[in-house]
Every structure is written in C-alpha cells, then in structure tokens.
Amino acid sequence: MSERRSGKQSRAGGGPRRREPERRSARDVALGVLTEVDEADAYANLLLPARLRDAGLDPRDASLATELTYGTLRGLGLYDAVAEAAADRHPADLDPRTASAVRMGVHQLLNMRVADHAAVSETVDALRRAGGGRSSGLVNAVLRRVSAHDADTWIERLTADRGADEALALRTSHPAWIVRALRIALRGHGRGGDGLEGALQDVLEADNAPAKVSLAALPGLADRDGLTAVDDLPVARADLSPIGLVLEAGDPRDVPGVADAHVRVQDQGSQLVALALTAADTTAEPTWLDLCAGPGGKTAVLGAVAAGRGGRVRAVDSSEHRTRLVRESTAGTAGIVEAVHADGRTVGRDQAGTFSGVLVDVPCTGLGALRRRPEARWRRRPDDVAALAPLQTELLHSAIAAARPGGIIAYSTCSPHWAETAGIVDDVLGDGEVELLDAPAILSELTGRSAETFASAARGGGRFAQLWPDVHGTDAMFLALLARR
Ligand SMILES: C[S@@+](CC[C@H](N)C(=O)[O-])C[C@H]1O[C@@H](n2cnc3c(N)ncnc32)[C@H](O)[C@@H]1O
C-alpha cells in the first residue's frame, strides 16, 4: 500500500474512503446528449443545459461540450455521408451510442481545431467510459479513415456527381427539401432576383452559426440599462429589440432577474412579434388573447406590457405541460396573465368578439429556428408543411373570431416557409373580414430601422414582415398584423 493511500485513510473522520465519482469530461457530456437525442428524440437545447449543470463543467469545458453537441447535430448530414464513404458504414445503421461517437469524431476531424490523433483517441475513450467498449475498434477504424482527408476534399469527392441542390445541401448540411423550401421562401418574401443564390447561401450558413444567448428584460419588471451597467455581468444591449439583451458569456441563470422571470431567455425576433401586437393595439386597459401560448415567451412580454397599461392577458395552449410552462414564464405577472389549457380552435366560437388584441403564434415547422434547434432539420419532413396548414388556418380563423371589431390580430410563425406564412394569411384576406396592417412599419417604429428591412415584398403590398437570421440576427420569424372590420 502506498504512503499516499494510507495517509488518505487516516484522515479525520476515518473509515473507508468512498470513491469519488469520476469527473465527466466535455466529450462524455456531449456523447451522452447526442445519444439521447438519437435514441429518445430528445431536444438538445433542453437537455444539454441540464447535463452541463449535472456534470459541473467549468465554463471552458461547458463551451467545448456545447460545440461538440450542437456542431455534431448541425453537421450530421455531411458527417454521415463522409463516414459512409470512408468506411462503408452509415451511422444510422449503428446503435445510437456508436453512431453518436462516429458523428462526434467526424465533427472534430473536419470542423474543429482538434489534432487528428486526439479527436480519434478521446472520442474512443469517451465511448468506452459510456459503456460502448465493444464498438471502440469499429469507431477507431472509421475515424482513422475519415482523417485521411480534410473537409474540403471530402465535400469535393461527395458532391462530384450530385445535382446543384443536393451538393449545396451536403455542403451546408441541410436536407435538400429545406434548401429548396428556403429558396422559394426567399423569392416569395422579396429576396429574389440576382442575389437569390447568395441570400440562400447566407441563410444556410447562418443556420450553422452558433446563436448568442438573447434575453428579454420585461418592460416594467426589469431595468435593461441597469443590467448592462452591472460590473462583471457580460450582458450588452441587443441592437434590434428595444427590450433585448445579449449574454456574451456564461450561464443565463446567473443574470439578475432570470430567477424570478423578470428577465427571460428569448430570441429578439420573438420579442418583436409580441411587442408589435402591443404597439398595434394601443387600447387603454387592453384585453389580449395569446392563442398558442406555450411555453410562454411571447405571453411574458404581453403580460408585462399589459401590467403597465392596466390590461389582462388570457393565454391558451392545447398542451397541459406547455400551459404549466406558461404559468412559470409569467410568474412575474401572475395576476395579469391567466394561463388556460384549451384547444385554441374553439376559443373564437366560445369567446367571440371579446379581445382587443389576439396573438396567434401557430405551431409550424420551425424552419426559421434551425440554428437554435440543431437536430430539427433532420427530424422535419416535407409532408409536415401540408399537415400543419389546416390547423394554422383554423387557429387564425379562431383568432379573428375572438377579436372584437377593430381588434388587432397578429399571426406569426418561426418559419419563413411560404405555405405556412403568406400562403395562410393570403387565403384569409380573401374573406374580407380583416384589413391587412403594415407590420414592417410597426417593426420600424419599435427598432428604429427602416421598414424596408422587414418588408416581405412579394405579396400583401409589402405589409407582411419577415425576419432573417443573416440580416437581422434573429430567428426567421414571420409576422402579419390584421385589423378586424
Ligand atoms: C410555436 S409554439 C408557441 C410559442 C409561444 N408563442 C412562445 O412564444 O413561447 C405553438 C404552440 O401551439 C400549441 N398548440 C398546438 N395546437 C394548438 C391548439 N389547437 N390550440 C392551442 N394551442 C395549440 C402548441 O402546444 C405550442 O405550444
């Protein structure tokens, strides 16, 4: 027995020493999350923060684990194609843990500044620690073959006999149907012409760029300027939303006001959509309905503004779990916001002509939020668009029916897809029940930027608004503002 060991045994308190749990590395955490995303359809943006907290990683390792997880998931289409070409093994044919180790290794080899030998050996070690020792030889062999070429060479080889869209899809790691849908969306929303292919490339690249953590300082509840003045707090004013902050580093839970829901993690585009309704409906003591409220990001903004204007908010969601999340999100304005578990499609009939403003942020494909939900692009199917359209239309009709005459309806999606944005609103405009308001002008008032920046030019006379990650630094949110006649 070594002196060191006997010394430890004789420490105060005595007794047999309990084994310290082995500290988990960044690769252990990333491999665990990637495996759960693959086998249990988990969401990386929800799972990773919890796993990082459990592991107690220091900030440097936490950011490495985040890059390994998000980067691997975003690049999955390319990485699977490379693994298959290199070693005749498509990761989808392997068990989730082994497949995740292969993908995480390929990400390090092709897209991170990690030495090849470290990318291979540390990935294999993480796989062994996760209990996947039996596959370690296979993963080692696949990764060694992948390491024979750099990313550009693999892409050149793999795209040589593909069509233009398939090649672009592989290079930017998106499914080809999403590449085509984004091109149609760009053209439809007025970014066509000679610059179309460049704009498409920019949007696809923006989907692959890590998004900074964006926060909303809820009006009347949090002091945005005060927060930016706190020493050692790495937050800055956001450049678009008048209530927005950007967290430059660290954990959002350490920001004052986050614990009591006065400051909330929320994309700036989402903040602007909620604020646009509050700016378009200037009623004193407004009564607002949020018809698809869960998890409550926009409801929290509506609640805070309503509190300052003597108003009320009714927040509806058809999912019980997400209705509970709305209650948590609006803890700062609990007496103002009432969260209700119900089907939004029936509210227009049950509470016809009631509300001064209605937000209908419909369930959609989420193609505008791919940078924040890295696995989403591989889960969505082209059929999802058509499957969601009837629900989106019904919810919009219900929203219009629930608004009182002269009331404002805000229709929004976190997708620029033509069929779930202008396609849905165009149909309803034909009924003559509503008038289309100038959403870009409202966004211009809120942000100080020109209305043209936000205008979706093609239809609606430039009155639809479309945000883009490459232009505005937000999720690609769509907004139409309607007034009930
Ligand atoms: C895009 S999310 C809303 C996001 C939310 N507005 C926010 O900012 O946090 C769409 C929501 O619609 C809900 N939903 C789906 N079908 C619904 C229905 N028939 N009635 C009410 N809510 C519905 C989903 O549960 C989901 O929470």
UniProtKB/TrEMBL annotation:
CDD domains: AdoMet_MTases. It comes from Brevibacterium jeotgali. GO terms for molecular function: RNA binding; RNA methyltransferase activity. The active site is at 414 (nucleophile). Keywords: Methyltransferase, RNA-binding, S-adenosyl-L-methionine, Transferase. The keyword Lyase does not apply. The keyword RNA-binding applies. PROSITE patterns: SAM_MT_RSMB_NOP. S-adenosyl-L-methionine binds at residues 292-298, 317, 343, 361. Residues 1-26 are annotated as: Disordered. Its EC number is 2.1.1.176. InterPro entries: MeTrfase_RsmB-F_NOP2_cat, MeTrfase_RsmB-F_NOP2_dom, NusB-like_sf, NusB_RsmB_TIM44, RCMT, SAM-dependent_MTases_sf. Residues 17-26 have a biased composition (Basic and acidic residues). Belongs to the class I-like SAM-binding methyltransferase superfamily. RsmB/NOP family. GO terms for biological process: regulation of DNA-templated transcription; RNA methylation. Residues 194-485 form the SAM-dependent MTase RsmB/NOP-type domain. This is 16S rRNA (Cytosine967-C5)-methyltransferase.
